[in-house]
What does this fold into?
Amino acid sequence: MEFGESSRRKSRRNKLIICSSNEMLPKIWEKFPEDLFEVVGARLPTSTFFRFLCVSRKWNSMLTSHSFRDQYAQIPISQPWFYTITHDNVNTAAIYDPSSNKWHHQKVHSFLEKLVIYPLTSISGIICFVNIHHTRFFVGNPLTQTFKELPACSSMDWSQVAVGMCMNGKSTIEGYKILFLGCNGQYIIFDSNKNKWYESKVIPTSIRLPYILNLRSQAISVDGCLYFMSSYPNGMVCYNTLSGIWNHFSILILHDMISGRFLVECGGQIMFVCVMIKSCVSICIWEFEKTTLLWKYFDKMPRELCLKLYKKGANMICVGNKDMIFLCFSSEKLFMLVTYDVVKKEWFKAPRSLLPRGMAYQRFRHKIAFYPCITATP
It folds into this structure.
């Protein structure tokens, strides 16, 4: 009986293949085998889901099924995306997909429309947001527009904090933690599994020294550890989320290193992006060797592109994720995004982002790199 049903099902599929795909006849495509929806849907380009979710409730609900998650988990990891809130419209996100070299514009979730929120940190497809008054925090997947608000907490000075995020396991289904580290050494952790904040603590005095956080550089997560960049003492402050131990790693101050120092995570490696001056200005990338605790030169931006940017007095903000580094340059008249592929060692100037309803170019405000995962849940 089972063999007969399988044969008939294959026969129906063969009939569909015979028809030209250009015709798209409703009488044919309405009979598309339902067991193939998840197989095909899991293999669609990630950007397709901006339209995919609007087709029907049935297609939308497919994203939460266990069988679809299993199918999606078999697909190779795509490149990370660049997410930014702009000066021109704080309720619309501009999202850059380097694989298709295209920008997408997306309204924030309906229950957030009356709020001004911007991204703080991300992990595996979900982003942590904060409102402009630093009084409310949200975690959400910008692709599926699923958001939740964190419980209220008033034991920190939220205006001067660095924020890091890490997973408890291999996916967000196993939960995640968010660590908020203040410039006074106070820190507090939110646990998504318990949906609560732990009691705030202070990092060991041997680490504080005191120290000054570099709040322009976002925290990164590598192998269960969160790394925050400090300007004084120069280096990285590290928190092991499994052991609860703090540590500090130095970054030697080079005499030709100037402003523009950023930590980024790429494929599980800790990278350091900085602006240097020798005979001319250059933007260099260094890699942290965990065995020797030393920094190794990795690559630098092509001289022609670098000189072009700094002749216009551009300031740099740098974020990274997986195998991609995003360098955002801005000045009074310049707003440019440059990508760097760590595996291929390729630099690429991204196209400028246009406003959704006009020809004006957008000016980036708050930026983050995130891994686009449609099955990630906050």
